[in-house]
């Protein structure tokens, strides 16, 4: 069986580094845990870091977090489906919202549960996923301010989630100006401008973040140390908090190109023959993990001599060249992961999960 390992000391190092930076800048922040898919063992490690705020896109995960740490502020980070509204009021202290009708329903449910539900209004800033259009914002806020049981604590935006639109200083200044317009128009304080996600951290590190942006939601940078502008690892951060370990279940020296008539494989892929490889062989390892667990393009082999060839539903094929490390059946190969790869593995019930301390 393949195993996904979380290295706690590396996670804590990344957390402490980010927390120090945010405290120096007087910026509030929370951890986005949707990557962890509600795994209590991993959530326990995150909560042990001293986290005050957790963000997730699944209300079932927020329910788990509230059970484990009732005092942690929970934030639901996507527009709410109608059928989830009672649970969102029960288990989310805050939610990101973009639809007036949904906020009305949240208001009604909050009154039923005798609660005040906090909302952050998400604004469309160019990436064309969720968000209220800027020209509609004043009217939108006016209607929301009238609703009982609802407290507007901020406005926010997402970047790089759909079309890859990146945050810039100008876009974040625009976001901060929206706050000033709302505050001046309605004489209401809006505590948070939540314009910071992992993709925004380089602007913070490079001293290009507008002063008005005072709230971040961080997932990928914490777990992978990744600078999404450059694709490199941030200085003084770990990129290997997670490691996938998979056992070799076959190891044979084989030709490097297939033989026979080629058609699409079950994944819909077609291959072209590289004639320069005729007559050449390589040691090929089959691993006990497959497409049901992860897309191979999100795997990062830990050794330069390893190359991922492809995968079927339950098996991964890796070329080992001359097998200079003398691997044999029963040995394991190790991989770092990209974010979407870790998300798949964490959502797979076929991969064991472990914490390493």
UniProtKB/TrEMBL annotation:
Keyword Ribonucleoprotein attached: no
Any one GO cellular component localisation term in the record: cytosol
PANTHER family, alphabetized: ALANINE RACEMASE, LYSINE RACEMASE
Residue stretches making up the Alanine racemase N-terminal domain: 9-225
Protein name, as recorded: Predicted amino acid racemase
Names of required cofactors: pyridoxal 5'-phosphate
GO molecular function, one term: pyridoxal phosphate binding
Keyword Isomerase: yes
Entry superkingdom: Bacteria
UniProtKB keywords: Isomerase, Pyridoxal phosphate
UniProt organism field: Pontibacter akesuensis
């Amino acid at each position: 069986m393949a195993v996904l390992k979380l290295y706690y000391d590396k996670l804590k190092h990344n957390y402490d580094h980010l927390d120090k930076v945010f405290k120096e800048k007087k910026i509030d922040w929370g951890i986005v845990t949707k990557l962890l898919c509600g795994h209590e063992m991993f959530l326990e490690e995150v909560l042990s870091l001293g986290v005050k705020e957790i963000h997730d896109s699944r209300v079932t995960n927020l329910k788990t977090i509230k059970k484990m740490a009732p005092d942690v502020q929970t934030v639901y980070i996507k527009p709410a489906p109608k059928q989830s509204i009672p649970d969102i009021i029960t288990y989310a202290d805050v939610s990101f919202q973009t639809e007036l009708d949904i906020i009305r329903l949240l208001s009604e449910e909050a009154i039923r549960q005798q609660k005040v539900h906090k909302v952050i209004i998400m604004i469309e800033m160019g990436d064309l996923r969720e968000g209220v259009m800027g020209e509609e914002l004043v009217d939108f806020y006016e209607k929301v301010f009238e609703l009982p049981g609802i407290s507007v604590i901020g406005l926010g935006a997402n970047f790089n989630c759909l079309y890859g639109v990146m945050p810039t200083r100008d876009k974040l200044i625009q976001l901060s100006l929206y706050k000033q317009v709302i505050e001046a128009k309605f004489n209401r304080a809006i505590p948070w401008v939540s314009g910071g996600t992992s993709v925004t951290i380089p602007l913070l590190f490079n001293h290009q973040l507008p002063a008005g942006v005072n709230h971040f939601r961080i997932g990928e940078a914490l777990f992978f140390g990744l600078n999404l502008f450059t694709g490199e690892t941030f200085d003084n951060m770990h990129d290997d908090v997670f490691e996938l370990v998979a056992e070799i279940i076959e190891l044979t020296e084989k030709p490097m190109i297939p033989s026979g008539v080629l058609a699409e494989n079950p994944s819909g892929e077609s291959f072209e023959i590289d004639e320069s490889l005729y007559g050449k062989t390589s040691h090929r390892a089959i691993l006990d993990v497959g497409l049901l667990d992860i897309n191979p393009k999100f795997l990062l082999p830990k050794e330069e001599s390893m190359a991922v060839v492809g995968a079927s539903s339950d098996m991964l094929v890796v070329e080992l060249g001359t097998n200079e490390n003398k691997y044999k059946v029963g040995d394991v190969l190790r991989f770092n992961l990209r974010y979407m790869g870790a998300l798949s593995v964490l959502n797979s019930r076929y991969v064991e999960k472990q914490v390493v301390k």
